[in-house]
Design brief:
The protein has two domains: 139 residues, Rossmann fold; 149 residues, Dihydrodipicolinate Reductase, domain 2. The chain is 32% helix and 24% strand. It is built from nine helices and 14 strands. Helix 5 links the parallel strand 5 and strand 6. The protein is globular and about 55 Å long. It binds NADP nicotinamide-adenine-dinucleotide phosphate. NADP nicotinamide-adenine-dinucleotide phosphate binds next to helix 1.
């Protein structure tokens, strides 16, 4: 592989454009190709992000020998099929979250990456953000004592016209897979996998969860209370609470713009912890990591490992099962 990693983007929607824009902050990178279902949207993408190759099918992009790694930015239900296609053509893959529709698909994707000896990673961008790293460091230093609870909420009213993928069961609609995944990720990265799970949802007219409340219980006595909603604009905050202090990620806890509030004592003890933040949306951190992995010849990320991805997907499956959210991809 050359010293410049050549990227292709598969699916040219909203997140693809943000990711493409953030590649400008990564060195040793060139965005060389985009693949779309139609030449019309491929051309639309290329107006903003000129590339050497525009493909009117995902297959053609996967076959392009001038591409080293493909970022998959299609709706959830296509992640499995698109990843398998790219891996079969020997392409490294960075696949958007949720990695797949369920654990079965996740296992198959990982197995194929191993068989092909090709890099594969879930685009869990929050894990690479400076504020997340800072929180991890504070936890390691014992700033909060023993963690007793994690309280996370994530909610917004979808824009109109509402993207089909938000509520369509065939596209993996509902809050759990789209935004609840961040809540679960935060709970898991602080407390690990729970010993018991409770979950309940209120359905949208399509049957997928419009809102979902999740409770993780731990034998240690810790609890995580997670809530996701497409019905209301919520604060979208995360509280990590221990015997010796509390951290609150205020507003959009999953994004680089969030503020870390640290409370070593009661509510009037607040300290603001500042972290450096680069310009951009924040997707350059994960892109930089993938680039580094590829330049080192790695086939698995040491930061978002296959086990991390499987653990997260198993929890998503478990929460959906408890809440009663079943997708066509789960049956058959
Ligand atoms: N990490 C993050 O912060 C973040 C943020 C938002 C979304 N995401 C994830 O990224 C994925 C895409 O989300 P998005 O908001 O970018 O979606 P989007 O704007 O709807 O774009 C998805 C793209 O996928 C392609 N596509 C193929 N089949 C489709 C279908 N049946 N319906 C709609 N689009 C189809 C289209 O591209 P072509 O026409 O070019 O083929 C479309 O533009 C989701 O899995 C989501 O979870 C991640």
């Amino acid at each position: 592989m050359s010293q410049i990693i050549r990227w292709g983007i598969l699916g040219t929607g909203r997140i693809a454009k943000k990711f493409a824009s953030d590649l400008q902050y990564v060195t040793n990178v060139k965005l060389v190709a985009a693949g779309s279902r139609s030449m019309e949207s491929a051309k639309e993408f290329a107006k903003e992000f000129p590339v050497d190759f525009l493909h009117d099918s995902y297959e053609a992009l996967a076959q392009n020998s001038e591409v080293d790694v493909i970022y998959i930015a299609t709706p959830h239900n296509l992640h499995y099929e698109n990843t398998m296609l790219c891996l079969r053509h020997g392409k490294a893959v960075l696949c958007e979250k949720p990695f797949a529709m369920n654990t079965r698909q996740t296992r198959e994707m990982i197995a194929l990456a191993k068989e092909k000896n090709t890099f594969l990673m879930e685009a869990l961008w929050t894990k690479f953000l400076p504020h997340y790293q800072k929180v991890q460091q504070m936890l390691k230093e014992g700033k909060l004592g023993e963690i007793k609870s994690v309280l996370v909420n994530f909610g917004f009213v979808p824009p109109v016209p509402t993207p089909a993928r938000m509520f369509d069961p065939a596209l993996g609609g509902g809050t759990i897979m789209d935004i609840g995944i961040y809540n679960i990720f935060i709970a898991m990265s602080v407390l690990g996998k729970p010993d018991a799970i409770e979950a309940t949802m209120t359905p949208a007219p399509t049957g997928v969860d419009e809102q979902c409340a999740v409770l993780f219980k731990y034998n240690s006595g810790a609890v995580a209370q997670l809530f996701s909603s497409f019905a209301s604009n919520l604060a979208t905050e995360a509280d990590i609470c221990g015997t010796a202090g509390r951290i609150r990620l205020a507003t959009r806890f999953y994004e680089p713009g969030t503020t870390i509030e640290y409370y070593p004592d009661r509510v009037d003890s607040r300290q603001i912890i500042n972290v450096d933040k680069e310009p951009g949306f924040g997707y350059q951190y994960e892109a930089r990591h993938v680039n580094d992995c590829l330049l080192k010849g790695l086939t698995e990320s040491p930061v978002v490992s296959f086990k991390d991805t499987l653990d997260l997907m198993e929890l998503l499956d478990a929460v959906r099962k408890k809440a009663g959210v079943i997708y066509p991809a789960d049956v058959g």
